[in-house]
Fold this protein.
Amino acid sequence: MSDWIHALPLGWMGLVVFGGTALVTAAIHQLVCRLATGERARTFKGVSPGLLSPLGIMFGLLVAFIAAQVWGDVDRANTAVNREASSLRAVVLLSRPFPADAQTRMLGLIERYIEDVQHNEWPAMASQRATLAMMPAPLADALQLAIELPATGPGQIVAQREIVANLDNALDARRQRILVSRSEVNVVKWFALIFEALSTLTAIAIVHSDNRPTARYAMGLFSVAIAACLFLLVAADRPFTGQLSVRPTPLLNVAPASSPDK
């Protein structure tokens, strides 16, 4: 699906999807009506209405198949962001047993990392430009600092080990969200879904070609259902793009704690 439609506000996206579906439906209706003359009209009349049921079922199965991928990607994206935020929050809490200067450095690096994620990585993920080659320098520095922390007692040793583990977990969660940000429904699936929708609309027009008002009503109802399905899928197709995208809110909620007095 094209980049421009994903970047549209929901209102304009709905207008494009529903308007485009209506125009295509009207074009199919007019074409079939013009063809339904003479011998072709008798041929169209011979098409069984029973054909519509399996076509509708096939369209529904395709919608369910694609929706399963879309919702799965959204769930994975939310899980990755929440896991990353939880790990960073754990680092903030576990840094308290260490000296004030080490704690301040650690919290400063976490805060810088979150700012970088918000201002650089999130826009890159929205346009599917984010790659694993983008190294988060503040998080790498935080991991290096965690390894070098002066652990002088059993409590600090345990805290140091947990900080390193949580930073590693945050890095893994970051990798997961970047991979998910590049996920979308591929062209073949969109083609199959749209082609099936067009086939069903054409079959409705042919079956009711001898009764044009009935054809208009039937095609209109089914086209609304098609547009609703397409709108829902397009709006959530890319987990980090558009108004329904996954937000960095969990990570931002960690940032205010990034000072020793909080």
Observations:
- Confidence is low (pLDDT under 50) at residues 256-262.
- Residues 26 and 241 are 31 Å apart (CA to CA).
- DSSP finds ten helices and no strands in the chain.
